[in-house]
Amino acid sequence: MMRIDRRSFLASGLAAAAVWRPLGSARAESFKTDPFALGVASGSPRTDSVVLWTRLILEDASAAVSADPFAPDPQSVADPIDVEWMVAEDEAFSKPVQSGLVRAVPEFAHSVHVEVKGLQPGRWYFYRFRSGDAESLVGRTKTAAESTDAFRLAFASCQQYEQGFYSAYGDMAGKDLDLVVHLGDYIYERSYGAELVRKHGTGVPSMLYEYRDRYALYKSDPQLQAAHAAFPWLAVWDDHEVINNYANDRAPDAPASTAFIARRRAAYQAWFEHMPVHPSLANGFDALRIYDHHRFGNLLGLTLLDTRQYRSPQLQGAAAGDRPERTMLGPVQEEWLGKTLAGSQAKWNVIAQQTLLSERDTKAGPETGYNLDGWDGYHAARGRLLDAVQSSAVRNPVIIGGDLHAFYAADVKRDFADEKATPIATEFVGGSITSDAPSEKSLATALAENPHLKFASDKHGYAIMRLNDRSTEVDFVGIADRKQQNSPASVFQSFAVADGAAGVNRL
Ligand SMILES: [Fe+2]
């Protein structure tokens, strides 16, 4: 049994192994190594359901990645394995709620996605898996409330495994949260950077088994596992889950479209296999709809966007080449977003996307420079998104993002050139969990050149958002040193957004 840096509820849950009652029909299997070494996770919380996840790994994950990268995936020839799942009201499993059997098949890398239905709204549940003589650790999850007056979520992104340890997740796991939102770059396809603290051990993945091995390596981290086991997660991807700076069916470093689409299909399948997402996503990986909307009573409407799969190709050269027909979300998602915002009854409406929505001139002085991989390369598309925010009259829009490896807080303007304009939304970008940050100088330039950017920091960590009836508060949590294991974390800056008044207020 893998022992992780678990919190008290996990420890006492493990102590309850004696009360586990086998259902009798799972095929007995004797495992040489812990098949649950990648941990457990839950996600997609609705008022009456939640998705439980695990992936059985039939050998040590680190051994798998150090093997010959051209060897066939050893699990692809393995048999299906029956897995029992169990949900209880208490961590001791003395009040069982539901249990069942699911077949983990090699076609999906023995991943398990169970949608548990018929649960009570706004309730904590405990869950675990068992197969043969092996048991998983205990996870905790929470359904969405039908009504609530308070909600806490954390958001995180960009966790290059080699560039640092996951101290931020160790800290997050001990917090009082209802949900974690991951905004992309859960894995990185390539190695880069200095002072690497650990190694991928393999090259850039392009085949399905290679992407699987990369996820297995990242998910072998005990602090990441602890954060998954502690809360339900919602996740969207960015580019590094496939390849750097890809756009729809094109990538700067990838060959022709047909070859890239095959690679993207493999990457999308591996993402599905390792995320606590709805089992219905397994229907096909040529395209994968991950944009979605979640409600948490009338307090929070949470809209998750996909800015990678449907976007127009990147501009080559200047932002001036942008044309109105260019898209970031694609027409279908864009129309869906407009309807979703218009239909939301929630007091706070969080739009979770991958990067900084606000304009950011990166060049000092009268010259201008923009990140063409972000919304600044998709000017017209951003305008349409902001039009949808305004025309829908959605209440208290708050944008969250990642990607930049830096924390930002911003007043979102319909026209960023108009310094006097009233903000129409508020934006918070979380720093990276570990990935290399930009220079302090570049952040200072960004703040100087863009008055709507109110704060920036090159620290590593994550953000916590606390919503209630009157305000939303955001804490930026930084870790002292990503190169150290179990580095201490602390809140280094907090903000408030008042009900009915978009804009950043420093606390
Ligand atoms: Fe990143």
For this entry, give a set of tags.
507 residues, 10-stranded mixed beta sheet, alpha+beta, globular, PhoD_N, binds fe (ii) ion, Purple Acid Phosphatase, chain A, domain 2, 19% helix, 9 helices, Alkaline phosphatase D family protein, disordered N terminus, Metallo-depent_PP-like
Please, could you describe this protein's structure?
Helix content is 19%, strand content 26%. The protein is of the alpha+beta class and 507 residues long. The protein has one domain (8-506): Purple Acid Phosphatase, chain A, domain 2 (4-Layer Sandwich), CATH 3.60.21. It has a 10-stranded mixed sheet with strand order 5-2-1-11-10-9-19-20-21-22. Helix 8 links the parallel strand 14 (348-352) and strand 15. Helix 4 (208-219) packs parallel to helix 6 (257-274). The structure holds fe (ii) ion (FE2).
